[in-house]
Amino acid sequence: MKSNSKEAATVKKPGWGKLLTLVGFAATFGSAVPVGYCIGVVNSPADYVKAWCKKSLLERYDSNITESGLDMLWASIVSVFLVGGAVGSLGGAGAANKFGRKGCFLISGLLFAVGAIMFFFCRMANSVEMLILGRLLVGLASGLTTASVPMYLTEIAPFALRGTFGVFCAVGVTGGVVVGQVFSLRDIFGTDELWHYAFSFYIVLVIICYLPSYIYPESPKYLYIVKNDRESARRELSRLRGADAEDIINQEIEEMEIESNAKVQTRTLGSVLKDPTLLLPLIIVCSFHGGQQLAGINAIFYYSVSIFEKAGLSKVNAEWANLGAGCLNLATSFLAPVLMAKVNRRPLMMFSTILCASFLFSIAFVLYYIDKASWLPIACIVCIMGYIFFYQLGLGPIPYFIGTELFEVAPRSAAMSMGSLASWTCNFIIGMAFPPLSNVWGAWVFLPFSITCVLLFLLTKFYLPETRGRDPSEVAPLVSKGFRSKVN
C-alpha cells in the first residue's frame, strides 16, 4: 500500500478543478464562516439584547426579572449555542454515515437558515424563546459542521491537496468570528434597533453558497467504502478530477479498494471506543480538539479589551484594537493552507504549542506586574499578538483535520465526531469557568492555558506520527499499540 500511495502522490498531482474549488469555497463560506460568525456576533450588542429580553419578559409575562436573573438568562442564550454544538458533534458520526458527507453539509445549511430566520423575527414576535431556539439550532449546525465538513473536504480533495483542504474549516471559523465582530459594531448593526440584523446577516452567505448545492459531489470515499456504490464513486471522481485524469482516478479507486477490503464495515461510535488499536489516535484527536480550546484563544479575546484599556486606550479604541487582534488572527490563518502543503505536521504543531505556552506564561507574568512599569502594557499587547500569530500556525488549524489523516474511512466519522465533541465541551468549560476564575486568580488564570500547550507539545513529540504525505492506512499501524507505539 505504501508504494501505491507514494505513486499516487508522485506520478501526477491533480490541481484545483472548477468543481473542487467551488465546493471548497462554498463549504468554507456557507458553513464554516457561519460557525465563527455566531461565536463573534454576540459580544458587542449584549447590553441591547439583554435590555430587549427584560422588556419582552415584562410585556409578555408581566415578569420583572432581576439583574442576576437577567445575567443568568444571557449566559443561557450564549451557552445554549455551545450545548447545541456538543450535541451536533455527538450526532455527527451517525449522520455522516447515514446521510453522507454532502448530506450533513446540506442539513447544517438548513439549520443555519432556520436559525437566522428565528433571529430576524424574534423581535417582531417579541419572543425570547425564539432567540434561544435559534441559538440552539445554529449550535447544532455548528457542531455538525465541525464534525463533518473537514472530513467532506479532505475526502473529495486529491492526495496532494488534502492538507490544504483540511484547514479550510479552521480558516472559515476564524474568519467568521471577525465578520461577526465587524457586523456587530455600533457603526453597522450593533445598535438597540438593529441587533437582530447582526444576528441573522450571515444568511446571505448561506443562500449564496447553498444555491448551487445540487451540483456538489458526494464524497467518493463515502460512496465506495461506506455505501459500496462503486459506480457512483467513480462518477463523482470523474467530475472532480476531470475526464482526462483516468490514471489518477484509477489510482484513487485502487487505494479505496484496498482500504475497503481491510475495513469492510462502517464503524459505530461504540466499536471505535472499544477498539484498543484506535485508543491512541482517538486520544490524540480529542486532546488536540479540546486542547485547542483549553489553550485559551477565546479567553484571550474575552480579556483583550480590558488589557488594551490598561494600555491607555479608550473603551471604543480598545474595542477596535480587539477587532485588530481578530484580524491578525484571520490574516495568520490564511497562511495555514500554504503551510499544510509544505510543512510536516509534527514540527509545526510542536513549534506552535511551545511558543504559545511561552507567550501565555509571559501574558500572566506581565499582567500581574502591569502597573509596575510604563512599558509593561505595551509588552502585554505584544505578547497577545505573538500568541495569536503562533496559535494560528499550528494549534489553530491542525486539530480540525488531523483525524482525517490518522483514521481510515470506516472509523473516521466516529473519531471526528468525538473530536468535535471534545472541542465544544472544552469551549463550554472555558465560557463558564474563565470569568469566575479570573476574578479569583487574577492574571495567573493564564497559567493553566500555558500548561495545556506544554502537554500538547509532549503528546505531539512522543505520540503523533508524521501524517503528511501518507495515506491513513500507512499511519494506522504506527499508533495501533496505544502508548507503547513508537512513532519516531
Automatic annotation (TrEMBL):
Main subcellular localisation: membrane
Localisation: Membrane
A GO CC annotation given for this chain: membrane
InterPro entries xrefs: GLUT (IPR045263), MFS_dom (IPR020846), MFS_sugar_transport-like (IPR005828), MFS_trans_sf (IPR036259), Sugar/inositol_transpt (IPR003663), Sugar_transporter_CS (IPR005829)
The entry's keywords: Glycoprotein, Membrane, Transmembrane, Transmembrane helix, Transport
Membrane topology: Multi-pass membrane protein
Annotated Major facilitator superfamily (MFS) profile domain residues: 24-468
Protein transport listed as a keyword: no
Stretches that traverse the bilayer: 72-93, 105-126, 132-153, 165-183, 195-216, 348-370, 376-402, 414-434, 440-460
Any GO molecular function: hexose transmembrane transporter activity
Family: Belongs to the major facilitator superfamily. Sugar transporter (TC 2.A.1.1) family.
NCBIfam families linked to this entry: SP (TIGR00879)
UniProt-recorded name of the protein: Major facilitator superfamily (MFS) profile domain-containing protein
